[in-house]
Amino acid sequence: MRLAIITNYPISQDRLGDYAYRLVKHFRQNESISEIVLLTNDAFEKKGLFFKESGCKIQVKPCWVMNGLLNVFTINKAVKETKPEAVLFDFKKSMFGDNKVGNGLGMALPFLCRLKNISNIVVWHEVYDEDQFKSVTKFFVRRLNKLMQLADGIVVSKVSHEQLLKEKYNAKHITFVPQNINIPEDLKVSQLTKLNQIANFGDIIEYRTTEELSRETKELISINKVVDVCMDMFQNIAKEKAYLYEKKVKKFILETS
Q1: What is the model's pTM?
Q2: Which of 9, 48, 190, 240 has the most neighbouring CB atoms within 10 Å?
Q3: What is the torsional sign of CA 80, 82, 85, 87?
Q4: Taking a C-beta distance cutoff of 8 angstroms, is the pair 207, 213 a contact?
């Protein structure tokens, strides 16, 4: 499967970039992925692809700019040009910069993928709660949240976000992946002050590097869980689309026979 990942990739830019690096790293090692199309911003530099592990090919396509108002259109164009079989949208607040209009327009990407009949999943790090806003702003926040839910699948890391989407929007295709990691039993509390910071589902958590952590624990950080959940979702989406297509064909045959 050729998978396009829309994210803020440069690991020097922000926490989402660091998270995206680890996300891409684990996706490219999945046997079901033949190629990753990285749709990132124009700040990307080739030195960001320093993977030592073997994995699938990565095609990098910088196609948007921070604080740009036209990002939704340039990303949509990039998706059309690269023709991926599936799209993963790694989204958090201010992903496209400080421009609220630009970020809001970006939330229409799942809808645009749906128009192209491309399977797409959103890894939604921060969900806007419409009740935190008033009048006109509240109206637009609700509409933007609904646009995001046009994705074929949604992954969130907080129970509160899962509850919000289910209770206020009756979301059905949502999966909660706990934001947690296992701490080795032999790790002393005094060592915590010496640990580096890594990104765990978009948030910074004090711990060792991902590689050191994976060697010391039986279960990897939640990024691995996100990859597994997303791959299961994509497989189920493909099966459902195949079933609906087969059903449509049978109906056509019956009507024309």
Answers
A1: 0.81
A2: 9
A3: negative
A4: yes
